[in-house]
Amino acid sequence: MNKTINIHLAKMPFTLDEKAYYRLKKYLDQLNVLFEKTEGKEEILEDIEVRIAELFAEHKQQKEEIITDEIVRAVIDTLGAPEEFVDETEQEKNAQPLRTRKLYRDTDDRFIGGVAGGMSHYFGIESVWIRLLFLLLLFSSIGGIVFIYILLWILIPEAVTTADKLKMRGEPVNVGNIKKKIKEELDQVSDTVKGVDYENLGDKVKEKSKTIFDLGLKGLNIMLKLIRVVVGVLLIFWSSMSIIALIISVFIGTIFTSFIPHELLTQSTTYDIPLPILITTIVLLAGIPFVFLFSLGSRLLSYRKNIMGRSTQLFLGGIWFVALLAIITLAIIESESKAITFETRNQQSWASQPQDTLRLQRNNPIEAAVTTTYFNDERIITKDGQQFRFGDRIRLNIVQNTNDSIQLVTIKSAKAWSQDKAQFRAENIEHEVDFYDGTFLIDQYWRTALENKSAGQKIKLRLKIPEGKYVWIDDEWAKYLDRKIPNDQNYSRYNLAGHLWKMEDKQLVCHDCEHFEGAAKIDENGVEMDIKNRGNTKSIHVNLNEDGLQITTEEKEK
Amino acid sequence: MNIDNTKAQMRKGILELCILATISQKPQYSSEILTQLKAAKLLVVEGTLYPLLTRLKNAKLLEYHWEESNSGPPRKYFKITAKGKETLKELTLSWENLANAVQEILD
């Protein structure tokens, strides 16, 4: 089964088989280039087309309905090959365009602007290699190649006419060509050798170098093919793995996020974008490049021009671009929405009873009876139809006061895109502290309305106590303690809890921190133990062996 | 020395004269001109003719008109102009001189 193509030549219809059509088209294209600079080009070409039509018509009269390749070949023989025209019509200067290649953009073989396609003709390399190189440069030059590409796009003209396209293809300097050239030179060399009457030797030299050269070329070809296969397989493997990983992570991610209550999820974003839309956008952004890499890989392997159609490429590229814009916009909005931090400061004072030990107690403001949504430390409660979010980012620091009173400074802070908004959010953090009978009752959670969003709300409490004041920090306060509470034990956070402290000389001094260090030795002689307290003021020595049990204690004055 | 090339050069010089001569009797279309030139073995490939015809037309030595054909595409009939006739006369004269001169040398 052969495909046929209908054409009109000099207003006459003809049916050509496919091969014949392409041969004829190529011939006319070549003539087009040949006569490019000749005066009356159009007329000459028209005359030639008329003549071709005449010759075809003769065949048609002989009941040959379809013009075959043989007929076209015979017609071209009659009319003469372009080179024969040149010899007899003083068109030598126009013969040049057939030979010299020019750099054009090939819009028939393009991904973006056809730059790589054009370069592939110029250098005689398949365009997929040049694309691969561009891709590598894209990663290694951190996008610098983009500007170079755009520059090339602007500077290199597009191959529009058939003449341009022929010039673009020209006679590429490919492997075969180099071979031809070097063979020519080898022949020349052997001719010279022959000239000096070393005929046999010359032939041998020629033969040998030819074989070696052929072998080298073959090796190079095989290497290139091998590299191509390896790169192709790697690309396909890498891209398909990435796509699979993406799908799996979306799957797992969806399962996990389904555990997070919706109200909490939307608390951290400025706009309540539905999660499925957000996930889809991210998946498209991350996934589409891998689809392109996959297609590139399969192109390398299959030697086929296009795995994806041009429209598919454009469609995917378009979607990717939109997704990119969406994510960038979102990222800018989100980063701007937390740009400004505002702090409110509130100070309360109480008289101190020197002999009393100050106690810190937690108060849980979340009543048991209300509906609560929990996730990790975040919780939302509904009270009287109103929703509140509770947070526990509270830090307590304890420092020495300059006077004899007890002071508590509460610093509430929140973030927003504007000063006013941040201030509003900070002021709308609700947190209560009670002080009675020498005991602080401090809310362990702050509370804010849902519409204030999760905007970095936090509370810093600064408890100022006079010198000589005792304070008992209960274990339950461990997680709320500041990292830098000045103390004589160099304790940080959790370790401070569960001890009795006294404010002395701008730091807390521990009054029940007895710490011992010890060493034990157990062997065939028995057990020997050495225990000392911190500061080495008390020590105890225990020795248990065949002589019995021996205990020695020692106390040094500080 | 390339003999084929020399032959081609010789033919090339007299082709224009021959084209003018063939159409000086009566108007002819390009295939008729081709048939005559090929019969005289002055043309190796047909393609050579068309640039020449265009050149002669541009030099106003000949003109043409279109005529429909029953069997094929429309035909271009070429007719010699007054200027063409003068050129033909001049070229014929110089050809005769040349032919005589060459003949004398060859004899």
Mean pLDDT of chain A: 78
Shape of chain B from CA axes? Answer: globular
Shape of chain A: elongated
CATH architecture of chain B: Orthogonal Bundle
Distance between the termini of chain A: 111 Å
Helix residue percentage of chain A: 40-55%
By CATH, the superfamily of chain B comes out as Winged helix-like DNA-binding domain superfamily/Winged helix DNA-binding domain
Largest inter-chain contact set: A-B, 32 and 26 residues
The average pLDDT score of chain B comes to: 86
Low-confidence parts of chain A lasting 5 or more residues at pLDDT below 50?
Answer: 87-98
- The structural domain count of chain A equals 4
Structural class of chain A: alpha+beta
Structural class of chain B: alpha+beta
**How are the strands ordered across the major sheet of chain A?**
11-12-5-15-16-17
Q: Span between N and C termini of chain B?
A: 24 Å
Quickly count the helices of chain A. Answer: 15
Major sheet size, sense and barrel closure of chain A: 6 strands, mixed
CATH overall fold name of chain B: Arc Repressor Mutant, subunit A
